Amino acid sequence: MYNFFIDFFMLLLPFGEKEYALNPSKIICLGKNYAAHAREMKSEVPREPIIFLKPPSSLIGPNDKVILPPMSREVHHEVELAVIIGKNGKNIPQDEAMEHILGYTILLDITARDIQSVARERGLPWTVSKGFDTFAPVGPRIVAAVGIDPHNVEIGLKVNGEIRQRSNTSNMLFKIPQLIEYISSIMTLESGDIIATGTPEGVGKIEHGDVIEAWIEGIGILKVHVV
Ligand code: MG
């Protein structure tokens, strides 16, 4: 049976010798999970994880186009390590968390910063600023969980060849097992779901015509175009 919804959002990423069809029920993102980024946002370091959702309709793949929405004057890049869930779970304890991971990729948490700033001032949700179509590029491939130490890899981002963000995932405040325990205490994590683990410092504006290249050591380079 033809299923328009499934097909429409289907995104294939290389995964070992095969391809993996990315079709998450949800994309869970971390706010302020690197202290240096919390500082540049003039925020406190959080005591417990701050989470929000991006809609699966915001996903695009490698070499796709990020479309700047007319509603915003200031759209920012945020490079993040993304966890792909491989096994459903609810109330997953930290010591079992890694068993629920299929692998890792890069996710760009594209953000309409001006819209987010107004929302923050007014105590409103971040949904609009984070949820536009094309605001979640992922790729270039999924690396199996056994193939990488997710808490000790270089993470960075270039715009038009110039380095804007460069850090190491060892600087994450809340580590992946803690995140999985916390998130799964609230919502069931389902196979295919994506957890974006937060961005390091150096976020900044992107403009029409920019080329973004995000990298994570051991995963590769995710390149997208801004239009
Ligand atoms: Mg982010």
Low-confidence stretches: none
Q: What is the top-level CATH class? A: Alpha Beta
CATH H level, superfamily name: Fumarylacetoacetase-like, C-terminal domain
Number-wise, the strands total: 17
Characterization of the model:
- The structure is a single chain.
- The chain has a single domain (4-226), classed as Fumarylacetoacetate hydrolase, domain 2.
- The protein is globular, with a radius of gyration of 16 Å.
- The strands form four sheets. A seven-stranded mixed sheet has the order 4-3-14-8-9-11-5, with no helix packed on it. It has a five-stranded mixed sheet with strand order 6-17-16-12-13, with no helix packed on it. It has a three-stranded antiparallel sheet with strand order 10-7-15.
- The model has no long low-confidence stretch (mean pLDDT 95).
- With 227 residues, the chain is of the alpha+beta class.
- It is built from six helices and 17 strands.
Question: How is the secondary structure organized here?
Answer:
Elements: H1 4-9, E1 11-15, E2 18-22, E3 27-31, H2 35-40, E4 50-54, E5 59-60, E6 65-66, E7 75-77, E8 79-85, H3 94-97, E9 101-108, E10 111-112, H4 113-122, H5 127-130, E11 136-144, E12 154-159, E13 162-168, H6 176-184, E14 194-196, E15 204-206, E16 211-216, E17 220-226
Parallel strand pairs: 3-14, 5-11, 6-17
Antiparallel strand pairs: 1-2, 3-4, 7-10, 7-15, 8-9, 8-14, 9-11, 12-13, 12-16, 16-17
Residues 29, 78, 80, 109, 198-199 line the site of magnesium ion.
